[in-house]
Amino acid sequence: MLTPEVSVVMPVRQWRPGTEAAIASILRQTLPSLELLLIGQQDVRPLANQLPRDPRIRVIPRRQPGIVGALNTGLAEARGRYLARMDDDDIAYPERLSEQLAHLRGNTGTQLCGCRIRFIDSAGRSDTIRRGNRDYAQWLNALTDDGDIQASRFIECPLPHPTLMAHRDIWQRIGPYRDLDGPEDYDLILRATLAGITLGKPDAVLLDWREHPGRLTYADPRYRREAFARCRARAAADPRSGLGLSEGRTVWLCGTGRNARHWHDALADEGIDVAGFVDLHRHGPHRSKRGKPVISYEELPERRCGALVIGAVAGPSAHAALLDYFDQQQWCRGREFILGG
Q: 249: Cβ–Cβ under 8 A, 6 or more apart, which residues?
């Protein structure tokens, strides 16, 4: 086979009701030059027996166990000039790969490309999706250019993992997936931003992202909130982040709830000093959290003293209120403050 334009890496843990549709959606792409790498368990014969006869399909056993082992096997085996991700229960629209390829080759400057998504349920319906995931899809789909994506990277993963696509040189620049106690996809995106890689998305919705209870997000302990906080804190503490935490800069955390506590603990593990917490409902002069003072927003400008302020609250309305407050202080996002999930 001649070198394909795009290699699509799809780990397949087991044959599920949506697997056939996911594979078919890649084989129906309008981009003619592609290969589909299905990364299975050590014994791939049961998987191979389920597949249509198509020379573009390659079935490969993973070299190491787990999703990280499967993903890195796919990256190592891929022959295409560009490498794309796909999950085994999602649906790629026919134009997905060609639109992303055009976006990467255009004058957008994008080096690592995602796409807009629509959530669907196990039956392929979108009208049953819960409010939280509808809001999440709206947030994701609003982030299309590198500036907005970079500014939002500490809130949640701004590029859906099964939509990723980049030239093979960019994948090599980011490095392989890492097997860590945390989400390997979010870790990959944060490392890409630290490496100075520009991120973006074309305007169209190009993938149906299937929502079901069996997703790793719900079933794997590596996706718990504390693990996400550790990924964020590790990236924020990196000298390449430009936040100055590696040079001894302290932090004030806006919020006193679960998100703020996770941020505090993760930053402490990175050796970052948290000066205290900021809360709307500060009761009494001696209130503390994690042994640190809790102050009011009125007190913060005087007590900040050059510290980084992290908005460690959840939800669009809370973030919007914080952005209004930061704007009143004339603080610069990415320098004086960041928003964190």
A: 243, 306, 307, 308
